[in-house]
Amino acid sequence: MIGINRKLQALEKEGRYIKVGLVGAGQMGRGMIAQIENMKGMRVVLTADINEDNVINAYGHAGIERGNIVSTNNKEEASQAIRMNKVVASTKALLVCALDEVDVVVDATGVPNIGAEIAWNAILSRKHIVMLNVEADVTVGPLLKRMADASGVVYTGSAGDEPGAIMELYDFADAIGFEVVALGKGKNNPLNVEANPDTAAAEAEEKGSSPKMLASFQDGTKTMVEMNAVANATGFVPEKPGMNGFEAGVAALPEIFQLREQGGKVGRKHVVEYINGIAPGVFAIVASDMEEVNAEMKYLKMGDGPNYVLYRPYHLTSLETPLSVARAYLDGQATIAPDAGHIAETVAVAKRDLEVDEHLDSIGGFTIYGTVMEAPEAKEKGALPIGLADKNVKMTRAVKKGDIITYQDVEQTVESTIWRLRKMQDHEWK
Questions:
Q1: pLDDT, tens digit, 9 for 90 and up, residues 221-262
Q2: Residue 426, phi then psi, degrees to nearest 5
Q3: Is residue 388 within 8 Å of 113, Cβ to Cβ?
Q4: CB 36 within 8 A of CB 43
Q5: Are 318 and 29 in contact (CB under 8 A)?
Q6: Which of 11, 59, 308, 346 sits most deeply, having the most CB atoms within 10 A of its CB?
């Protein structure tokens, strides 16, 4: 991201700024609005949320006076407000995509179907789209990226999200000629595939977070989805369904990612993985076959080789999202996107025994969790992608706890945007 600050400063000196439209004024959205208000050359001019008070409060906490916040769902009124240097609060998500004054759309809803709908409409309106919605990305991202490329706009994941932070390490190492052996992240809490909003409630209240969101971290779904995004961006794969989930500190990572016949713990190179014990960091394992490079890495106290670890001990979630906005608008570049195609799939697994006619809920709920595997294996099993699971999906066959849910096990009661897009993607990749 070197130089973006100077480009934004130059934009502001010209009397211009990047006009951002945001959908979702929850924790991620609030942080992003506040951060952008401190930046040069950028402003969140329109925010939509199902609860308008969330938007007004987010703008207020960012230091914007109530008199400068216009509440409207009317396109002409919103346009006029932005031209008068005011900001707009709306309950109409698609207004963000439709408004000519918006340059870049950011989806911070975290709901796969809504994210897919926002991205689809943003691309049709020829606007750059930044996804703080990895769940939607791993489900229909390859299709959306191809659409964006054809439309001359940028489809991208977000800096600050773990996949984006991992991708920055990958791009750095790959650019200077290292072989990238493995990519991964730390997991914040022990894996508990039975976690649900009830079991997570006390900790969520203590942390001031959503029980459902916390459950999606505890049951591993969020980790699986994040590494799925990295796989689709790089072509790296999970070594086995669900990955290994090794426990280690940073110093042990180079040895872990040596092949088993060399004393390590993996059976192949170019894998994605999560590690218990290094959260909230992300890492890339790199290697070189050049003698001089290895000598210098040893001199630089990077270890004895043959593997070395590049470790970033933080990721600032939506506070870094503005960097992806700027990169898309100024340079026409994505932070992370599914450039490698449909490499991996996060599939729905029964969190408990599920009966006929029972409706699923969504990520972080009571009925399902996600596990990542290579996409061909998921296709062979007919596995249901996690991003397609919601309350409009009904069981047509009983499934036992711990079993993968397949397309044949379910039916839709209401067709959604993300299901339609997934059908298009599957047809394209036949």
A1: 999 999 999 999 999 999 999 999 999 999 999 999 999 999
A2: -65, -40
A3: no
A4: yes
A5: yes
A6: 346
For residue 380, give every residue at least 6 positions away whose Cβ sits within 8 Å of its Cβ, in sequence order, or none: none
Tokens in use for 58? 């987010």
Residue 307 structure tokens = 């593997």
Q: Is the peptide bond before 280 cis (omega within 30 degrees of 0)?
A: yes
Q: Is 82 left (phi over 0), alpha (psi -120 to 50) or beta?
A: alpha
What are 110's two structure tokens? 């975290």
State the Cα–Cα distance between residues 218 and 214, nearest whole angstrom: 6
| 167 within 8 A of 336, measured Cβ to Cβ | yes
Burial of 340 (0-12, 13-18, 19+ CB in 10 A): middle
CA distance 70 to 54: 14
CA diameter of the chain: 67
In this prediction, residues 195-224 reach a mean pLDDT of: 93
Residue 213, token pair as written in the block: 């969101």
pTM exceeding the 0.90 threshold for the entire prediction? yes
How crowded is residue 406: how many other Cβ atoms within 10 Å of its Cβ?
Answer: 16
Distance CA 119, CA 117 (A): 6
pLDDT of residue 218: 95
Place of tokens 């230091």: 63
CA dihedral 305, 172, 322, 117 (to 10 degrees): -90
Range list of H helices, 272-359:
291-299, 321-326
Asked if 35 and 11 touch (Cβ cutoff 8 Å), the reply is no
> Beta strand 307-312 with 282-287: parallel, antiparallel or unpaired?
antiparallel
Q: What burial class does residue 38 get, using C-beta atoms within 10 Å of its C-beta: 0-12 exposed, 13-18 middle, 19+ buried?
A: exposed
Q: In this structure, are residues 343 and 375 in contact, taking their beta carbons and an 8 Å threshold?
A: yes
Amino acid 32 reads M
Q: Where do the H-state alpha helices sit in 236-334?
A: 253-256, 291-299, 321-326
Residue with tokens 């426990």: 247
Q: Quote the CA–CA distance of 30 and 192 in Å, as a whole number.
A: 29
